[in-house]
Amino acid sequence: MVSESSSIDTCLPKNIVICIGDGMGFEAVKAAGYYASGEAGTLSFEQFPYHAEIQTYAANTPMTDSAAAATAVATGHKVNNGVVSMEIPGSGTPLKTLLEICKEANKRTGLVTTTYITHATPACFGAHNSQRNNLGEIAHDYLHLTRPNVLLGGGGNGISENRAESAGYTVTTNREELLNLDTNTESYVSGQFGQSNIPYMFDGPNNLPHLTEMVTVALDILTNTEDGFFLLLEGGRIDHAGHSNDIERQLLETIEFANAVQTVYARVSDDDDTLILVTADHETGGLQVQKNNGQGEIPKITWSTGGHSVSNVPLYGCGKNAEHVEGILNNSDIIKIVMGNEDFSGVQLSLL
Predict the structure, then answer these.
(1) Residue 187: CB atoms within 10 Å
(2) Crossing angle between the packed helical segments 26-37 and 247-268, to the nearest 10 degrees
(3) 89 preceded by cis ω (within 30°)?
(4) Which of 3, 99, 103, 263 has the most CB atoms at less than 10 Å from its CB?
(5) 27, containing H or E segment
(6) Which is catalytic among the residues 66, 85, 309, 332?
(7) Is 66 a catalytic residue?
(8) Which residues, 6+ apart, have CB-to-CB distance to 162 below 8 Å?
């Protein structure tokens, strides 16, 4: 288990990829493995050498939301539900995020999600706000404060083509435009796909990109630097399917998320100075798998809620510093794993 008082020196990897399957508990992973291959333990990230469990509680409640959980991952601080990387409870001071730490180290940075881009999980890495629903303010932070090189996700919800273009971003709005970008010359790209979340994989092909396509383009842009990069990759609609107790859509979202992680692994794992972590912000739906019905068949399952649960969630790691992924950890420990296991409590950022 990662110790608060560890004396291990800070050693920030060159490349850092945090992959969050929103709402993806242990049972969602098991169900997706059964459906994809007929066996548990077969998704891409389950092959990583280091595994752990993560406790997810928020500062003010045992049942976290995505904002409190993602803030804990991004900053190492527990906050109240609904808060986006600010010290609440406490002084209300904005908390420095992992994305901002990496930007200060001259790394390129990116946020890629299947939700709309200003949704809670990406927001907690690239913005600061007392309320996750202040979407226009979150978009302002992206475009004018933290300025990730890559913003790829659903559109609308506080961000617009005009706002992004006026802030110096090249905007793409569909799959064809994204895949035809000259990634050798583009350095600030805002992909605004539709006016909300990207459609479920289950609902068939459309003119919007899948998560694997978005992450491929993101990596093409982010790897065009000698200083490395930070990437948040979110399979955000796993959570939405869990809320709806929709196992068919959840299975395909989880498998696509695993495919996107495999794309990342294939691209950057040969670099010894790379860390890839895969986790969830919380579990959604209280899913329990009752029976494996074989490859391509929906397993027998039960749901216990249409909301979040307090269950621990998985953490998988490979690469530099990943040996600290073991035992039962807290979501606020993840940044210490990334940073070489140093205690970063008290590190804060004041908005300009």
Answers:
(1) 16
(2) 90
(3) yes
(4) 99
(5) helix 26-37
(6) 66
(7) yes
(8) none
